[in-house]
Structure prediction request, 65 residues.
Amino acid sequence: MKITAEMSIGEVVRKYPQTIETFINYGMGCFGCSAAQFENIEQGTQVHGIDTAALIADLNKVVEA
Prediction:
């Protein structure tokens, strides 16, 4: 697994720009906001009421494709 819940949203988007669409599909368009630079994926999913494990799994599928 390349992406983990502890990684910041900004870090993931910088390393793997192909994940932007997945974040958007989950209703997390926050990768462009300043909080995305320090907020990790788990914190972001909690704020938005999103299943962290499902998002992480889908992000890793995109990266591995």
